[in-house]
Amino acid sequence: MFSLIKEKLQQLWGRFQAGPVGSFFRWWTGELKQAMPAAWREKLLRAFRRVTVQLDDAELLLGVDENRLQSKLQALSLSQDVSVQKQQVADVLEANDLAEAPRFLLLNKGTVLSKQISLPQAAEPNLAQVLSFEMDRQTPFKASAVYFDWNVLERGGPTGQLRLELFVVPRGEVDEAMKLLDGRGFTLAGVDVVEEGRTLGLNLLPAALRTRTINRKARLNYALGALALLLLAAVMAQSLYLRAHQVDELEGAIAQVQGEARKVMRIKEQIEDTSEAAGFLARRRAETPLAIELLADVTRLLPDDTYLDRLVIGRDSVQLQGKSQNAQRLI
Fold first, then answer.
1. CATH assignment of 36-214?
2. What's the whole-model pTM score?
3. What 3-state class would DSSP assign to 299?
4. What is the per-residue pLDDT across 212-245, written as a single tens digit (0 to 9) for each?
5. Residue 19, phi-psi category: left (phi > 0), alpha (psi -120 to 50), beta (remainder)
6. Strand partners, 70
């Protein structure tokens, strides 16, 4: 039951990594690491160091893998008593503050079968199963006879396929090395491949065989990292809220200014209308003679024996109606 749940979780994790969210998360975490101060990055890397061991015919070579770079710790002779060597391993790890670090067996790339293959992009969420089915076609081995892992080289690309490098090692070699190391107190969390002093970031060991190491410093760093992410998310959320609030305030201010501008335009239009009306009246007044002047002219022109009953002053004419002793002469 547990293995089924674990397999399902691995499939879900594969889909997550293959999707756009996984790509964005990888990019974002990389940018976040680059934005951290150098001292913080160094402490973070030190907390995730791995103890490595390489075996040759006569020696057990202990080292440290830090950000995929190898540095040597100590070489121990395999000819010594197993109990003595077990204590030596414990002392070396304790002296270098590595007692809680995960322990990996390193295999030289020349001793591991590697092959580049292409698969449909849809295969990525279930790569372990797909590669198990393809193993006897891609390699001389059956899946049951090897331990394997892979590195994705390209997603999509011109052909739209998934290009990866498959790494395969016979189980017998790893099982024999694990047995030798277990007796010396060196239980493995994984098996990686080393090339020119750099590890490839693999783990050929199946999940069921990996020893889980409780690294309190790593847990603390995970907790601090999660807290930092939460704080960053809170700051981003607050920034977005403040930005939205500022936008709302700005939109309100713009609406208010627009309202005032419309009022000003209406007042301006009223002033223009009033000015136009006043100008019209002024022109009419200028074009029309004053009534008193007109009466003076009429009085001067009419004889004394004539009087008016009615006087109508129009824009372009004047109508006179009255009586005179010599009306015919007036006409």
1. 3.30.420
2. 0.57
3. helix
4. 776 566 566 666 667 777 777 787 888 888 888 8
5. beta
6. 65
